[in-house]
Predict the structure.
Amino acid sequence: MSGTAQIGVTGLAVMGRNLARNFARNGFQVAVHNRTTSKTDALVEEFGNEGSFVAARTPQEFVAALERPRRVFIMVKAGDPTDAVIQEFAPLLEEGDVVIDGGNAHFEDTRRRERQLRGRGIHFVGVGISGGEEGALHGPSIMPGGSAQSYESLGPMLERIAAKAKDGTPCTTHIGPDGAGHFVKMVHNGIEYADMQLIAEAYDLLRQVAGYSPERIAETFRRWNTGRLDSYLIEITAEVLAHTDAVTGKPFVDVVQDRAEQKGTGRWTVQIALDLGVPVSGIAEAVFARSLSGHTDLREAAKDLSGPTAAPLDEAAAAAFADRVEQALYASKIVSYTQGFHQIRMGSETYDWNIDLGAVAGIWRAGCIIRAAFLDRIRAAYDARPELLSLLSDERFAQEIGAAQDDWRAVVAEAARQGVPTPGFAAALAYYDGLRADRLPAALTQGQRDFFGAHTYRRADRPGSFHTLWGGDRSEVEAG
């Protein structure tokens, strides 16, 4: 083989196959490889007319087909399978070559791999890819981490295959060193969990409280999608709710088991937020809501617990309630994005990544699952004030959420009165109120900690750490 392929993709399941086709469709010669060679042959046979492919049957053939610096895109399952492929290919590579992991890897694994390969002079790039199999083929949002030198080699190719925002900007950028790309993808997925939970709660409220049918709720979501809630998830929600099951003739949503599954990135987001000390309560409640849905034994045991008597709304009241739900959904979504961007900021500071939050918002405007119209405004807010600590400190978002708060509170209160669980809406509202509170009850918590564990406290009126001698005369001593 002559070594003319500009990029190589190993791992040709649906995502890998579509990514290879995307590169080929955009004019790149692509070396393709899979441990099961029949997948390689099938790709070339079925899609060879889309561009230039070089089929490789062995790792040696695959590497030999690539031009220098070699760019090896790994598209296999995260974890041990990724390590196994790296171990197989790394000895065949040379200094300056680039290994790219496009799987849903944990960012700490990416940091470890980057350190290991850096010691051999090989660049390792952890790439978060959002958009599913359609995005991989037609243009995803791409979040690459790694060295600046690796992006010089790889970046122009990613920019070619990435989704394009309405202004034509490619939805990819160099996120930062080592695990920055996979960290941002992780948080993207955490926001996605929260967004989906909030939409599900809005549906549940419209059905259980307003008394709307799935078809009417679909119409409501379509209307919302023409305004400030314009987003991919709102769009597909309307499609799902409007779908009728061909077998039973019932609404599709009524024949699906109410047990939501998850692949792990949402849990990682919450786990890492705990490590960083970042409050992502909305994302956490979304993860726990999925977990609760899956504990069918607990739900079966509790199904006869008492609750409030339903109070159906008349048509006018239901329509007014639906408008309030739209306000609550929008305000809660702002909070979810606020928490996610705060986590990215804190991760960036902790790991010295120097992530541009405006650029992150920019590459989420198309291709990815959480793409939404208001990401343009989030990007603009961070571009204007890179030091912005919270989206809720942006004047326009603050005004909008302030205008929504009465309806938001009314929805959470009505949900409680009617016995409809809304952990996402309630957690978002509690976060908002926690931020704006002049005094939090954490002062009492500190007093309790000092009482039972001598953990000390800080005073509001002078510096230093103090401890009260609770068992004696309760005098105060300075603790250092």
Observations:
- Residues 315-351 form the longest helix (37 residues).
- The chain has a mean pLDDT of 96.
- The two ends are 70 Å apart (CA to CA).
- Strands lie at 7-10, 30-33, 53-55, 71-74, 98-101, 123-130, 141-144, 457-458, 465-468, 476-478.
